[in-house]
């Protein structure tokens, strides 16, 4: 629903008040040591699917809030409001996820939490962001996912860990927090997700990630990935990576009984300002892999599809260039093409059409220390082709972000 005028005025006043306190130098604090948080964003999205269904919207918003200092090195509070206000959204062209499904504006208290620090660990409670492989902000539209959760995080040498219980999620196109089991499609009693995650650094830049995400009475996801850089020559690096994520129904099996999996391999070569990437992913035949709580972690999660249909085998080839050494610092371009085959309908086993997607992006970021430091923009375009479809699915994204530096 559109935000009532009184609430809109309050949001505008908060943005204006925080903007008045902006400073060029980092580390600015309000009286009492409070840190202001202000991120402005505008986003235009236009799409037509392979069957000709249109989706179009333009929104303005972002988030603003305050973070307290660590009082006594023990307690910290944080509160952040999110908004996505409709500038343009024709009726019958919803589905962009910039706004609600019926093209309404969104305003929500996305983060409101307290953190306690003790013995080198931090316990955080209530509304907050989580950034793990299958539970994450999915910040690819106007406002990210946020969660109601109770987490303990810390570090021990080269390992960082987090774990706890997540009860609800606010998806990017809603202003309501909903139980995790319901968002996953479960129709039984409300249930949350038990989460445990570990990041382990090793060698010269190696990283191992392990995650267990147990959606009570719905399904379980275990995730593992590893990446390691190899210095081949001066200014030339090869990064090798692998990932795997088995999933299965658990407990009361609120969305049915199933077992499936996905895995991926990648190699990324960088030489000076140039980069090239090669990816391979495959999905088990038991079901499409599920990611109801965030962006899919697959190496081939592109703008329109994640190539995660049951049975799907996919490959992708990408490249990028940084124009800084050529006299245009902050300007970057990238492209990737991926193709998937062997797809099946997991309910019937019937074959599904092969498909391919091509993404291109041009992005610019103002340099740190400049008058517009923190301002970035990107133009992205995608073509999705599917055998037998009447047309290519096309998607345009144009957005600007201004992370105001205080």
Give the CA-CA distance, first to last residue: 33 Å
Helix and strand sequence: HEEEEEEEEHEEEEEEEEEEEEE
Helical residue percent band: under 10%
- Report low-confidence residues grouped into runs of 5 or more: 1-25
The major pleated sheet works out as:
18 strands, antiparallel, barrel
User: Shape, please?
Assistant: globular
- Annotation, overall tally of beta strands: 21
Structural class: mainly beta
Beta fraction: over 45%
Radius of gyration: 22 Å
What does this structure look like?
With 406 residues, the chain is mainly beta. 5% of the residues lie in helices and 52% in strands. A hairpin with a 2-residue loop joins strand 15 (262-271) and strand 16 (274-283). The model is unreliable at 1-25 (pLDDT under 50).
